[in-house]
Amino acid sequence: MIKLGLIGAGRIGTLHARNIGNNNKCKLIFIYDTDNERANKVAGLYGSHVADTPENLINNSDIDAVLICSPTDTHIDMINLTAEAGKPIFCEKPIDLDIDRVFACIEKLQKNPVPFTIGFHRRFDLHHRALRDTIFNNSIGNVEQIRISSRDPAPPP
């Protein structure tokens, strides 16, 4: 059983909490959000505890990995804290809006190597994977440019 901590209980954090709750291989142990009422609401749905600070969540020995679903401007700080704690990280996109800060974050991750992934779900989308495979199989010839418009069918509940 993988024990997870969730930072950010907004729209996407709540969606991830639901998915974790539906997976019998992991459990949502702690949730942190700057809006304590929102954190308590999500925690109540999944039998989780509310952390009073992100540091307390990240450094808790019961947490195996951390999902970062907080606002973009907090991602790098949360990534750095989690990497320093030696815990695997799933972070919602983007890492940051400033490319220099992103490169500095990558350097930090290289100094504190932990499993790390960005939540860009399109890489797992069946249609995108089929397009990728078609291109790499050279079954449509030499592709010079692709233009894609992609939207979710509806916002998550």
UniProtKB/TrEMBL annotation:
Q: List the lineage, top down.
A: unclassified sequences, metagenomes, ecological metagenomes
UniProt GO molecular function: nucleotide binding; oxidoreductase activity
Q: Which Gene3D superfamilies match?
A: Dihydrodipicolinate Reductase, domain 2, NAD(P)-binding Rossmann-like Domain
Q: What is this protein called?
A: Gfo/Idh/MocA-like oxidoreductase N-terminal domain-containing protein
Q: Please name the Pfam families in this protein's record.
A: GFO_IDH_MocA (PF01408)
Which portions of this protein are annotated as coiled-coil regions? none
Q: Which organism is it from?
A: marine metagenome
Ranges for domain Gfo/Idh/MocA-like oxidoreductase N-terminal come to 2-120
The reply to whether Oxidoreductase figures as a keyword in the UniProt entry is yes
Keyword list, A-Z: Oxidoreductase
